[in-house]
Design a protein that fits this description.
about 240 residues, binds phosphoenolpyruvate, 10 helices, eight-stranded parallel beta barrel, single chain
């Protein structure tokens, strides 16, 4: 399975900061040992696409709506992402689920819509600390995958990002053993559902833990928040 290193910039970086980042990152992206994908905030997307044109860097949006256009004030259109040259859409990030109330049913519609446009959905799943402590991790992930992939096309590309909610932005990374065990579970759930997909780990990935985490079973790369905002730290992660 090819490796993928994905950067979630959340609500950081203006278009000018985006251009400045890529003018430096383009010089080092050739060192990456897998595909590199960036998810800038919506208004910086075009600056990202323009500055990375002609390079191997892929660009995607952090969210989209389930319609290409219409009376949906404040939403993002995947059709527009496609038109400007984006290729991925992040779907169901834990911040979208927790802060913006996204349900598995809405997420399933987004996955199917994104695939129908020929873009690749990167579906995020993950358990909270309370769910892990109650030993419900497997059940939570199984439900999120079962419902989130309910309308997905098995013959079209899809990427899954396993991100334990308690490890996102907290500096509390899952141990290599937890990552190996959970990725093996996610892989077996996907197989049972009939999907083949790279499974990325996300949650406080940094240059000093990436090398150990990438060796774990069924880890095909990373989805990185904080450490993707600087060229030096992200390229160190993308070269493991
Ligand atoms: C994320 O936002 O998906 C993420 C994993 O963030 P961080 O790397 O900062 O934990």
């Amino acid at each position: 399975m090819k490796k993928i290193f994905a950067a979630n910039w959340k609500l950081f970086k203006t278009p000018a900061e985006t251009r400045s980042f890529f003018s430096k990152f383009k010089e080092v992206v050739g060192q990456a040992t897998g595909e590199v994908v960036f998810f800038p905030s919506a208004i910086s997307l075009e600056a990202a696409v323009e500055t990375t044109k002609g390079s191997a860097i892929k660009i995607g949006s952090q969210n989209c709506y389930v319609q290409a256009q219409g009376a949906f004030t404040g939403e993002n259109s995947a059709q527009v992402v496609k038109e400007i040259g984006g290729t991925y859409i992040l779907i169901g990030h834990s911040e979208r689920r927790a802060i913006f109330g996204e349900t598995d049913a809405l997420i399933a519609d987004k996955v199917a819509f994104v695939q129908s446009l020929g873009l690749t959905p990167m579906l995020c799943i993950g358990e909270t600390l309370a769910e892990r402590e109650a030993t419900h991790t497997f059940r939570v992930l199984e439900t999120q995958l079962h419902l989130g992939l309910a309308k997905a096309d098995k013959s079209k590309p899809i990427v899954v990002a396993y991100e334990p909610v308690w490890a996102i932005g907290t500096g509390k990374v899952a141990t290599p053993a937890q990552v190996a065990e959970t990725h093996t579970d996610v892989h077996s759930i996907l197989t049972k559902l009939g999907f083949t997909a790279p499974i990325l780990y996300g949650g406080s990935v940094k240059p000093d833990n990436a090398g150990e985490l990438i060796k774990q079973a069924h880890v095909s790369g990373f989805l990185v928040g904080g450490a993707s905002l600087e060229v030096d730290s992200f390229i160190k992660i993308a070269t493991v």
